[in-house]
Structures are given as C-alpha cells and as structure tokens.
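Sorry to interrupt, but I need a hand with the structure work. Leave the record below and I will have a look:
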Amino acid sequence: MAGILVIGETAPDGSLARISAEVATLARTLAEQGGTKAGGIVVAADTAGAAGAAEELARYLPRVRALDDAVLADHAAPQRVAVAVLDAAREADHVLIGASPDGRDVAGILSAVLGRGVLVNAVGVDWQDGPIVEMSAFGGKLITRSRFANGAGIVTVRPNVVTAEPAPEPGTVERATAAEAAKLPLVRVVDRVAEASAAAPIEEATVIVAGGRGMGSPDGFRIVEEIAEALGGAVGASRAAVDSGWIPYSQQIGQTGKIVKPRLYLALGISGAIQHKVGMQTAETIVAVNRDPDAPIAEFADVVVVGDLFTIGPALLAELRRRAG
C-alpha cells in the first residue's frame, strides 16, 4: 500500500473514532492533489470490531485493511497497533494519524522503528511535491510550515482542524489477521477505570458552554452546567479554571487542552487569551459574556455581552427554560 496511509482508531464503543474520519478526509484530499493513492488500516481486538470500524473508514478512503489482534483485548493498544501496521507503514510514503494520546504513541513507535521523522499536532496540511504541514507554536502566536527532508514521514493531525466528508463512493475492505508480533515485551492491562463524563465527548459537541477565571470558584460553574444542560451541550473551561481545580482537565479547551469546533460556543468569564483562542476559534458562532469590554475575546467573538455573568447567566437560563416549557 503505497502513497498515503491512514491509521484508523476506534472509539470506546468500537466504532471508528471521529478524528480518524477527519484524517481520512484530509488524506484523500492530499492524494488527489498529489496524484497518489490513499488507503487506511484499522486494528481491533476481534474480527467484528475491526471489520465494523474498517467499513466506516472505507466511507472516506478507496481501500482499507481490517486487522484483528486478540492480544489487544488485554494489552495496551499503541505498541500492538504499531507492530500490526508496521509493514503497511513501511510501504507507504506518508503515514497520517490523529494526534490523540494513542495516536501520538503509535507515531512515536513507528518513527523509532522506521527511522522516519514526525511532524506533530498539524493544524493544516496541503500538498506541494509532498505534504506541507502547518503547526502552531508559542501558544498559537506563530504558525510554522514544514516538509520532510527525505520525502517520507509521519504526521499527527489535531482534532477538529478538518471537517469529515465521505467520498462519493465507498471503498473496499480487506480482512486479515495481524501477523505474529515482533519479539517485544507486552504491556498487560491490569485494571481499567472509567471516568464519568458528559453524554458526548467535548470534541464532538455541537454546543459548548465554557467558563473561565471569572467563574470565581467551583460553585460558579453550576450556572455553566445548568446552561449547558438547557442547551443540550457540553461543559468546557479555560486553563485558568482547570489549574484552579474547579473542573477536570478533560474539559480544558485551548493550546494545552482540547480543540473543539461546535456550532455554538458560549464563553462565560473567559478573557480569550491566544492559548484559549487556538482551541475554539473555528466554532461557527462565538458568544462571549464578560464584564471587561476590552477583553481579547471581544476581538474575535461574533457577539459580546458586557456585564456581570452572574446576572446575565441566570437571566439567560430562565429564558431558555421558559422557551423549553
């Protein structure tokens, strides 16, 4: 499988992870620009899981390989996935994978084994005799554009920088069993801890209500949670709120947190520093509530409400509940 290879990831429920659909869309576009081929590969613990996720990936790519590896049921995924896709990655000119925790680990292993460079956390990729990768540096204050010196390499792509779009025609799926792994030590999973979270991952939410330093305390986030519930959305936060211990890191949005792309982003008490902006600036509509009319978020928000969020927030919540009732 030459050209561009997409390594697909599975979600906790066994379906294709949304970030893999985004990466596959990007790979297909790059292949069209460069006159090359794009394909994918998915590895899962059982045949049905691998086939199901591969069928989803084939909506975006012309050819996908599904590999089942029973060892994945009880062992850490990145190492086994990297070994399973090694031959396909070696044959490809470029490998694309989502910049998720597992995706970064797989990219690092492949880089070490194949001796290829990695361009990480891409916020954009285009093709000029090979991939030109845009990366955000210095908290979003600088965008770099880089290419691989020897022509081949690995790219990890940040979530929500590409909109997933299925191909006009679905591709084909080839099914196989992963070959015996190289003689590497296995990392066995001895315990799994499920973290309670919102109904939908924050990266996939169409509505996000986020709070910042202006919330003042954990109790201040109650209004954020209530508005998010009324809108059917997810709760987010700035780094200042997370660092203060008011809300878990899993809800952090920004340069060192999640990148989101909702239809509506309601920011309460968030100043809008550049580190936060890079995580939510692609939202379709940004509404900010802040008592400081000169806060940085006022420069890029679509609507800015100047006032006390603890006055405006309850009034907004009451109106939402009135309309819903």
